[in-house]
Amino acid sequence: MPDLPPMSAPVKRSVTIGGHRTSVSLEDAFWRELREIAKSRDVAAAALIAAIDAARPPEVGLATALRLFVLAEVLKRQG
User: Fold this and answer.
1) Pairwise CA distance, residues 7 & 44, whole Å
2) How far apart are the C-alpha atoms of 33 and 52, rounded to whole Å?
3) Does this model's pTM top 0.85?
4) Which of 10, 14, 16, 52 qualifies as a cystine partner to 25, CB 3.0-4.6 A?
5) Contact yes or no for 60/49 (Cβ under 8 A)
6) Domain map (residue ranges) of the chain
7) Tens of pLDDT along 6-55?
8) Residue 73 in contact with residue 37, Cβ under 8 Å?
9) Quick one: three-class SS letters along the chain?
10) How remote is the C-alpha of 56 from its chain's centroid?
11) CA distances (Å), 70 to each of 1, 17, 23, 32, 77, in order?
12) pLDDT band of 1, cuts 50, 70, 90
């Protein structure tokens, strides 16, 4: 049986990207880690989200791009 981490339902938050507001739904663990990554880079979380949004391919949703970014950053730290 897998050892599961604490889980939460996705939480919808509003963010401003390029002057327009949008909503993104992410699990709490991803929101926390995204804020930590932004803090470690000395940027606002909104600025980091905007940069990820600008870099993602159009066929990939913002929430997916954010989750994959967080995963990549966590894996970089581990290895």
Assistant:
1) 25
2) 14
3) yes
4) 10
5) no
6) 11-78
7) 888 999 999 998 888 999 999 999 999 999 999 999 999 999 999 999 99
8) yes
9) CCCCCCCCCCEEEEEEECCEEEEEEECHHHHHHHHHHHHHCCCCHHHHHHHHHHHCCCCCCHHHHHHHHHHHHHHHHHC
10) 12
11) 25, 18, 18, 10, 11
12) confident
- Token pair belonging to 57: 């391919």
Q: Which amino acid belongs to residue 44?
A: A
Q: Using N-to-C axis directions, what is the helix angle for 62-78 and 45-55, rounded to 10°?
A: 110
d(CA 61, CA 41): 23
- Note the maximum CA span of the chain: 46
